[in-house]
Amino acid sequence: MKRRAWLTLAAVVASGAGIATYAVAGQTDDKPGGEALRARDASVRTMALEAQGAGRKGVDRQDTRQFSSLMLTWDSAKAKLDGKAEVRVRSVETGDWSAWQVLEVENSADGSEAKGVRGGTEPLWTGGSDAVEVRVTAADGSTTAGLPKGIDLKLIDPGVTPREAAAAKTQLEPAAFALPAEETTPPAGTPSASGEPSASADPSASTEPSAPATQSPAPSASASVSPSQSPTASPSPTVPAPLPSKVARPPIIPQSQWADPEVEHNGTPEYNAEIKAVVVHHTGVDVDNSTSCKDSAAQIRAHQEAHIAKGYFDIGYNFLVDKCGQIFEGRSGGVDLPVKGAHDYGFNTDTLGIAFLGNTETAPPTRAALDSIARIAAWRLGQYNVSPNSNVTLTSAGDLTQGNKIAKGTSITLPRVFGHRDTNSTLCPGKGLYAKLGQIRAFAARPGISHALPTTDIRPAAGTLRDGLAELVVGAPRASSGGSVIVAPGRTTGVTASGRLTLTQNSSGVPGATESGDQWGQSTAVGDVNGDGWGDLVVGAPGEDGSAGYADSGALTVLYGPGLTSGAWHGTISGRTVTGARLGSAVAAGDFDADGRADLFALGEGKSSTDGMWWASHTGKGQVSGTVATVPVKYTDATSGDFNGDGYADVAATYVRTDTGKAEVRWFKGGASGLTAVGKLNIAGGRSVVAADFNNNGYDDIVIGQPYTAESGAYAGGQVTMVYGTSTGFSGIRTLHQNTSGVPGSAESGDALGWSVSAGDYNGDGWIDLLAGAPREDMTRDGNRADAGTTLFFKGTSTGINGAGTVSLSQDTSGMPGATETNDRFGSAVSAADFTGDGKADVVVGGDGEDAGAGQFTFAPGRSTLTSVTGGLYTGSSQLGASATAHIGDNMAP
Known about the structure:
10-stranded mixed beta sheet, disordered N terminus, single chain, mainly beta, 5-stranded mixed beta sheet, 9% helix
């Protein structure tokens, strides 16, 4: 049986002062980050708030175990909290007290589930805390009269699941919620909430099987639950059969992978007749905006414990989505069944509740989260052949209590995807997410909505547990072994050499064999090729020799995450002579046919008399290829994005012709049958290209890096050119260089601005920013340091990037580790991705000339500005165990 602690402690109500205060302290031996982590049940501890006499404001301190979440509850769900409840906690890690935070009232159960449910607030995630103070102030600020009866405080410890404990044995950093436990791991085979045996503490027992080397068949829109998915209940008179959907199901982290295996539900699930609409929520707590995606599972587990403690059957939401776009199964009963939730009082019947982990009143939702919410909505509404862009009439089943705005029995017409505030007196889902509901509906209605969700989670620190954090992929094609790739896992503290995996073609499970001149790692990309929700690694090797004497035909290697110990090799170009093709000089991954699995794209730069070519492989459906130029090409790059907003991934590829020396850029369009060549754009190409929705209008744009005038007609010193995506393709450009107003420095021949480009929302303002490397910039701080290099950070706006607020980032920047030296080539490669899981893109800048060609990469965490760096990390070739000629920083992904 589950052990739920009910520890009642005294609190203080200052009679007549309008404030109830409560504090618990007591340092314990429990500290976050312990090495010997063991599975520990989640627990809820209850403290009653009691009066201690008129005028008394003292705080009685009581020892308590550490907690990570809390809430207030009271006897009746219909009772109002006529005032404001605030809380502050003390961090175990720092010993500091937080600011006062308001607890929001939440009572959403209706129908038969509402019987006996306690009223209360939303749970507040605090992280590891060992002391708390609560004050409840009445509306008039002068009296406690009218406070609900039976008000109490519940401290929630989400515990450590057996899966997390097993993963912690190889994990680089323990989860913030994971404590050294006094309790032993439950024996293997203990029934879990989903009816599956709980994971063993043995790491091998919790490791998910690697994908097979052969490609799996395409999933159908009504794909059955995978072995790791919580099983759907068998059909019965009270349990409906699952319906197929016209939209493929997205990857979902099942409750069996995040819940306490000993969780006790209050009864059994109820089922709706159908799903008519989707209600979008946010958890509405500021701290959720800064909590790493690594802790999402623990946060959701705390929500579940809180909702069950109130008397709900299970967690109230049907699904939850975090900043990194991870989708979690919420309420149990079957992810593909119309399980009735407890998320919108009066409107739980025939609706589906999706909650975003964050407060969008104070921070915008991420694009990854919007895409995931749209995918769930499209899949579940697709089971009932309902358009996400249509309207629906719903009838309120609740009275005008608990925030409900619509009287019982009254009908209201709403969009199929609407916000909680449309039916309830609440700010939920926050102004940021509410403003994006139209975009979510448009996303969900796209013909290519079944596309694979972008993911860069290929080999997390926990090994077998998804954490949503991006991994840094560093290609080293000039390594002495014939080329190598280094995978450095994302961590809340940043990216370093710690926990890295170095791969060559001689590594276990990697197809092929290392040979001199292969250039394995010349290009890299990440995408979910086999559709299992994990990112897979794509590596180009243009110098690979094919069979039948095809020298330098080139090849691509796909390694399946998270193990990266099995995969597939692509070295055959259908219907073409391949000698000298040098396939893999550039690679990209995207779901071109929207079947739920990423496909592959590659350029072959050609050699001697071999034409420059393109090639695409649609997972499980064959290849297509063609010519980009009738001569060999060089300086190739490619990127994938949805440029026309139809849901299918497209490709933009750039290269320099060897006959004219001019750079070109081509567009390849995705569709139901896969990728097709559209043609050459009427603008100059360059040496780098990146796709992102810079103006946030639902269409991905591209930015082309054009470092040299002779190739692109670029401004002296190089430039970047943004090309806007539209429903019909590309239209409109904007060019920026170092003589643009607001851009630091001055345009000088040879600076090579645009040698590398990457995009991400660095400052968390909802607009995509651009990083552009200028590795040949000379630094003259105290004497000329030729080709020391710099990187420019262009701030995103509602119209895309412009020069205003641009920042120059170099090893001379305050707080940036390392030293500016001649020929460092800082900016030879750049990467902007969320390596720490806080919803902001972090920055990694490579310098392939560091230490005479050994190379390095430097990490700077996502912040509001880059004028100075806090938490920067330097990683050189020696720390990576790479050769002195590896040129670390030659190329990086994402």
